[in-house]
Design goal:
Elements lengths: L19 E5 L2 E5 L1 E6 L6 E7 L8 H14 L11 E4 L6 H10 L2 E4 L4 H4 L7 H6 L1 H10 L10 E3 L4 E3 L5 E11 L2 E7 L2 H4 L5 H4 L10 E8 L7 H9 L2 H8 L1 H15 L10
Helix pairs in contact: 2-8
Length: 272
């Protein structure tokens, strides 16, 4: 099955117009996203490809198709994914990709960005993150960022929301449905928001927007059809799902460590 990658948002480069601007530990670089499919038993790379894409969202299907073609090329006529489990990190998690896995009958386990947060073994991790909340906020502000929902203190039991300036927001919707999920919305009072000294850091357009609004999700809204993302969350959150996905780290990451450290390809910063 052919796949199409939308490159309309990709910035071109005069010397290498197939590359992309990518964030790395060394800042923004012009490069490629190196992705590899690795056999869990022997850590053999069964398919690898370099994409001029800054994100991995559109790369899951091409990697699946490339892996299939490689196995067919060595004489395996049946589909390799008929009896193979696939694991991938949160960079590949989109509703479109999850739909593809379920419709193709691929036994996939793909984490989402909140996968660790739902894990009961990490229940106390939030208290450590709280210590660094202020430091992360200051770093983001230096780079011209705007406060996100994570910078607002939300107490779901008391239905209370406090903004970064310490002002109490009022609730203006407790059963709001956004993309099939139920949310609680809060809005800052004009008397507090208009003269606030953090206004420029809180609003993307402080000259046009009067007040800041935030929302916090509480779960899927009733009577809404289940998404493929929800199906994957339920699958990967099971005891077996966490066991299978837990093997991904020891399967693919050592391969990239070998490439960068043992083979000395230090300019190679990708992971997959």
């Amino acid at each position: 099955m052919a796949s199409t990658i939308d490159n309309r948002s990709q910035k071109s480069n005069l010397t290498d117009n197939e590359s992309a601007k990518m964030k790395s530990a060394h800042g923004v670089i012009q490069g490629y996203d190196g992705v590899a499919a690795v056999d869990a038993k022997h850590q053999v790379i069964v398919h690898a490809e370099a994409f001029g894409e800054a994100q991995e969202h559109d790369l899951l299907v091409p990697m699946i198709e490339g892996t299939r073609e490689n196995f067919q090329g060595i004489g395996r006529e049946e589909d390799i994914f008929e009896d193979t489990q696939l694991t991938a990190d949160a960079g590949f998690h989109t509703e479109v990709n999850m739909k593809h896995l379920f419709e193709e009958g691929i036994d996939g386990y793909v984490a989402d960005t909140l996968f660790r947060k739902r894990d009961p073994r990490f229940a106390g991790a939030s208290r450590y993150k709280e210590r660094h909340r202020e430091a992360r906020r200051e770093a983001r502000m230096k780079n011209g960022g705007v406060f996100t929902n994570h910078d607002f203190h939300y107490d779901p039991e008391r239905q209370l929301c406090i903004c970064p300036a310490g002002k109490k927001l009022y609730r203006n919707g407790s059963n709001v449905v956004i993309n099939g999920y139920q949310a609680v919305k809060f809005c800052a009072p004009k008397r507090a928001c208009r003269p606030c000294h953090l206004r420029a850091q809180c609003l993307k357009h402080p000259d046009r927007s009067e007040v800041r609004q935030v929302h916090f999700f509480s779960g899927r809204a009733p009577n809404q059809p289940e998404t493929f993302t929800s199906k994957m969350k339920r699958k990967i959150d099971s005891a077996m799902g966490r066991l299978i996905y837990g093997r991904r780290l020891g399967t693919v990451e050592p391969v990239f460590a070998n490439i960068t450290r043992m083979l000395g390809l230090e300019p190679f910063h990708a992971a997959g």
